[in-house]
Amino acid sequence: KDASKINGALNGGNNNIFLVNPMGVLIGKTGTITAGKFVASTTPLNDENVKTFFKARSCFSPAFDVSKQGNIINLGKINADNIVLIGNKVEIGVGAELAGQDGQTNAKTAHLIGNYVYVSVGKDKENKNTIKIDKDGFKGTAI
């Protein structure tokens, strides 16, 4: 059993895309995802989880929680107004993008949820990237 690998275009238009694989999800450097909402999770789902998820009618649902296996790694571009990435390790690599659905603006919300969360902001001192982590965690600018 392998992680899901996106190395091309996955275009959902205005629709929502949910990609669930307990072994992990890799969006490669040439991978581009476009959707209204995009969720990638490593949570193993059973029938009860699926029912809970559909009742919640949301991309951020108690049906998805952090597991001890499977990583979510983005090295490409995710264009969605709402982005949720849930895994043991969640990593946003250097050069990867989390953008709004139009690909030009910022995503409205991006939830990165994991036992370990890594965001690589690169080495360009001209560009500042803001990283906010709730629950009294780091809040500030990474250079």
TrEMBL record:
Organism: Campylobacter jejuni
Leader sequence segment: none
Spans through the membrane: none
Protein name: Cj81-104
Domain Filamentous haemagglutinin FhaB/tRNA nuclease CdiA-like TPS residues, every copy: 2-130
Listed Pfam families: TPS
Highest taxon, organism lineage: Bacteria
UniProt xrefs under InterPro entries: FhaB/CdiA-like_TPS (IPR008638), Pectin_lyas_fold (IPR012334), Pectin_lyase_fold/virulence (IPR011050)
